[in-house]
Amino acid sequence: MIKGTRSRTPTRSWLSLAVIMTAVVGGCQTLAWWQARGTGEQARALAQDGDIVMYTTSACPYCAKAKSWLATHQVAWRECNVETSLTCMQQFQARGAPGVPLMAVQGQWRLGFDATWLVSALQSDKPSNDGSPRP
Q1: Per-residue pLDDT tens for 67-117?
Q2: Distance in angstroms (rounded) separating the CA atoms of residues 47 and 64
């Protein structure tokens, strides 16, 4: 056996593995970005003023993430903060939702933010008859 051969092989293997893993992770992130971009473009094209209402609170991290997504993709929507508006609080309580964000899209309700559902709800012509947004 040649001296030093044994120590180089594991190093090269780890380096190769690191390069492969970086490529896979980067590819997955690129695919996710591309899909989100397409969903955002659809939502922006479909949404009209008044179609989307999001019930929020000031400190909700999920609400902040949803707001950021909607702003990034320039989707028309209206915020209804249940902490600062009595009307919003009453509407929120009437739905019986256990938390926020609560999305109302053309008469359809959903607890939590899901961009794919948002586009689907915007494409749908019929409102949900279910009075509860609970999953």
Answers
A1: 999 999 999 999 999 999 999 999 999 999 999 999 999 999 999 999 999
A2: 20
Token pair 């690129």 is at which residue? 30
d(CA 16, CA 75) in angstroms, rounded, equals: 42
Whether 5 shows a pLDDT value over 60: the answer reads: no
CA-closest candidate to residue 112, choices 101, 97, 122? 101
Residue 34 tokens read as 């591309």
Q: Which of 81, 69, 80, 64 is nearest to 44 (CA)?
A: 69
In what helix (H) or strand (E) does residue 117 lie, and over which residues does it extend? Answer: helix 115-123
* Average pLDDT over the chain, rounded to an integer: 84
Q: How far apart are CA 45 and CA 73, in angstroms?
A: 10
Contact 46, 123 (CB under 8 A): yes
Contact 111, 134 (CB under 8 A): yes
The pTM of the full predicted model, rounded to 2 decimals, is 0.68
Give the residue among 69, 80, 82 at the shortest CA–CA distance from 39: 69
